[in-house]
Amino acid sequence: MENPALAPSLLSYPRYRPGLAPAPFLPMSRAEMDALGWDACDIIVVTGDAYIDHPSFGMALIGRTLEAQGFRVGIISQPDWRSADAFRALGKPRLFYGITAGNMDSMINRYTADRKPRSDDAYTPDAAPDKRPDRAVVVYAQRAREAYPDANIVIGSIEASLRRIAHYDHWSEKVKRSVLPDSKADLLIFGSGERATIALAHRLAAGEPIEAIRDLRGTAFMVKPGWHPEGFVEVDSIAIDRPGPVEPHRDPYEMEPEGATAGATSVAQPAAQPIRIVPAAERVASRKADRARQVIRLPAYEVVKDDKVMYAHASRTFHLESNPGNARAMVQAHGVGPGCRDVWLNPPPVPLTTEEMDWVFGQPYARRPHPAYGEARIPAWDMIRFSINIMRGCFGGCTFCSITEHEGRIIQSRSEGSILREIEEIRDKTPGFTGTISDLGGPTANMYRMACKDPQIEASCRRLSCVFPGICENLGTDHGPLISLYRKARAIPGVKKVLIGSGLRYDLAVRSPEYVKELVTHHVGGLLKIAPEHTEEGPLGKMMKPGIATYDRFKEMFEQYSKEAGKKQHLIPYFIAAHPGTTDEDMVNLALWLKSGNFKLDQVQTFMPTPMAMATTMYHSGKNPLRKVSESSEAVDTPKSGRQRRLHKALLRYHDPEGWPLIREALRAMGRAELIGSAPRHLVPRDQPVILDRGQGSGEQKTGKASSPTGARRAPPLQRGGGGAGRPRGRS
After folding, report:
1. Is the sign of the CA dihedral 366, 367, 370, 376 positive or negative?
2. Are 523 and 498 in contact, with CB atoms under 8 Å apart?
3. What's residue 696's pLDDT?
4. Burial 674-695 (b: 16+ CB within 10 A, else e)
5. How far apart are CA 547 and CA 252, in angstroms?
6. Do the Cβ atoms of 53 and 365 come closer than 8 Å?
């Protein structure tokens, strides 16, 4: 496998076609290809999104970087998947089809957390629904194979990333196998794909067959059982993270004692042995062997689909092998008998350097939708047209969010100069710009240029979060570079205001009062969204989020600096209902906290189990993969029934009469009937408002004792998302 220290720079490759000029837009038709003088495309990117030539959209990002390497790249956007005809529109690609579902996972794009079809699609012209299939990566790959059976098929994007091994699928309520055997793809590229995609294109162009390309980091593929590169040693996952002694649950508010060994815990009881006992000699040998030449054997698909303990163990093992500095290859068997095949995963990609990030974001993007869409409105474009992505990755490790599984924990930042030049491009080139930059951020607003203080410690670290249960002493939390960027950005001529719209990591922000003052004084447009997610210790511990006291401290600073600036500004908190580890009592306490602060949330979010997230493992298995897993290890209770999930959502919207009957019923069952009444201390009133039919009178609302919410007003639509999978901006 590639040595992280020796990963070729994206800027080091000779251009495949030295004279290839940038296209105004990557072609989506034969006519556009003819206008460019192309007889064929080297690479065709198939995407479930409308083609917007902007670096916030994956098809443009990959397409333009491949173009800069001298490859002819075409786009097939939102093809009719019911036949292979649309996949022949640009002819056969010389090198490969690049298949992507788009910026979002197709199932999250199409369905709510309650599995109800969405009525619109933000990534489609005029937000039209049903322009992509369920499980788009699999369907598109199959149709591309039908179109040209001998073409190379490469799958990628967040949908492929999150399904690269056996995973729990919320929509079928089953553990599904890796996306590779279903798609019949030759290669899967996971994570940030520029490094692997560019290397692959050059090697294929040099005549190397795709089935021989097995050493690229950030790729996965199918192999025969027993295959491995020369010199590799296979290690059973039980040997390195044996489902063994139970580690006591860690208090999320507890700080690491001075001088304590990271992760040190006491042994509570012996472990169950789900498969076999690994001899001590084998475990010692696995620790001593060269990690770079090891491959970890995960429990097979046929095991994890039926055994929830082993599913949780596999999830834990997988996440512990996520640091590019020390991650090992992994392999997982799919099938039995003669049909058995292994899914092989190489280690994650080496993060991009600042120079490489600048190069990727500095390509000649048109910064608008393809002209083929005419005047159609594309909501996702409206949301980001005046925003700038300044970094990638997130070291928060929130268990419900899939950003880490896709982009990694190591922050990859652009240079200040690159970002300021993009602001000038928006000012000069983007139609409709009135002087306001809507966001300078990324997965989080304030992790720009943050990193471990020691590269050697970073390369060897196996923590799942740099900020939980407390901020690591080795993490650099200097907000100085970000403050400098903010000041220079708003000083650019023609820029009137620079807002921050990405999720703010407030436990980092409170360490820099200067940053909070800068943010509040100059970069809040009246409302600042922030995501404490919950108030109670149980769910916060399962989310790996800081305690609510940290939010309270940030709120004090926010209000202080708003007052000093003479501005009336407000925090808008986000919370998750029905997260694993959340009890009805937890949600009642959260509702009381919201009521005490007079928060009346319009948009609320119910937990959605996204593929491969650790919270999804808790949801499916009932086990906590943040600790070693066994039959008798910590159980995680999760709201799963439709009624309980509706209750938790209703408690977040305690002010909405539609949910009052359900809340009253639950409070009585919990022995909390004292919270029912009309006094300020009560959560919901005793009586239900009734809306009279038009035939009964004027239609005005009166108070009665209706036992059902049929006459109550409907709540606003559920907010998109639920696990962070595939959103252009993350929550923190």
Report:
1. negative
2. yes
3. 43
4. ebbeeeeeebbeeebbbbeeee
5. 7
6. yes
Q: Can you say whether the dihedral through the CA atoms of 555, 511, 325, 633 is positive or negative?
A: negative
Which phi and psi (to 5°) does residue 158 adopt? -65, -30
The reply to whether 313 and 390 lie within a common domain is no
Residues 32 and 61 in one domain: yes
CA–CA gap between residue 342 and residue 617 (Å, rounded): 22
Number of domains, the chain: 3
Q: Kindly state whether residue 322 falls inside one of the protein's structural domains.
A: yes
What's the CATH code of the domain at 126?
Answer: 3.40.50.2300
Instruction: Assess whether 440 and 302 both reside in one domain.
Output: no
Using the CB atoms, write b or e for 206-237: b if 16+ within 10 Å. Answer: eeeebeebbebbbbbbbeeeeebeeebeebbb
Global pTM value: 0.88
- pLDDT per position as a tens digit, 657-687: 999 999 999 999 999 999 999 999 999 999 9
pLDDT at 281 (0 to 100): 59
End-to-end CA distance of the chain: 33
Question: Which residue's entry shows tokens 């512990």?
Answer: 320
Q: Which amino acid is at 373?
A: Y
Angle, vertex CA 372, rays to CA 370 and CA 373, nearest 5:
80
- Going by their DSSP bridges, the two strands 96-100 and 153-156 should be labelled as parallel
How many angstroms separate the CA atoms of 347 and 529, rounded? Answer: 35
* Buried/exposed code over 60-77 (b: 16+ C-beta within 10 A; e: otherwise): bbbbbbbbbbbbbbbbbb
CA angle 373, 374, 377 (to 5 degrees): 75
Residues 238, 160: one domain? no
> Is 443 a domain residue?
yes
Are 65 and 193 in a shared domain? yes
Place of tokens 């049929």: 710
Q: Where are the alpha helices (DSSP H) in 343-445?
A: 354-361, 379-384, 403-407, 416-429
pLDDT-flagged residues of the chain (< 50)? 2, 4, 244-275, 288, 694-732
Beta strands in 408-507 (DSSP E): 412-413, 436-437, 439-441, 497-498
283 and 211 in a common domain: no
Helices 614-621, 308-320: axis angle to 10 degrees equals 170
What is the three-class DSSP state of 310? helix
For residue 281, which phi and psi values (nearest 5 degrees)? -60, -35
In a domain, 578, yes or no: yes
Q: Which residues contact 503 (CB under 8 A, 6 or more apart)?
A: 441, 443, 444, 445, 529, 530, 531, 729, 730, 731, 732
Please, are residues 16 and 206 in contact by the beta-carbon 8 Å criterion?
no
CB atoms within 10 A of CB 382: 12
Q: Taking the mean position of all CA atoms in its chain, how far away is CA 131?
A: 22
Q: How far, in Å, CA of 364 to CA of 24, rounded?
A: 9
Q: Which of 514, 483, 511 is CA-nearest to residue 498? A: 483
Which pLDDT belongs to residue 246? 35
| 128 CB-near residues (< 8 Å, 6+ apart) | 120, 121
- What DSSP letter does each residue of 245-301 carry, written as one string? SPPPPPPTTPPPPTTPPTT-----SPPP-SS-PPPHHHHHHHHHS-GGGEEEEPPPH
Structure tokens at 628: 């070693």
Strand partners, 704: 688
| Same domain as 244, residue 208 | no
Strand, helix or coil for residue 87: helix
Asked whether residue 312 is assigned to any structural domain, the reply reads yes
- Contacts of 128-133 with CB under 8 Å at 24 or more apart are 131/48, 131/78, 132/48, 132/78, 132/81, 132/101, 132/102, 132/106, 133/81, 133/106
User: Over the range 266-286, which residues count as b (16 or more CB within 10 Å of their CB) and which as e?
Assistant: eeeeebeebeeebeeeebeeb
> Domain range holding 478?
354-363+379-584
Same domain, 327 and 395: no
CB 294 within 8 A of CB 286: yes
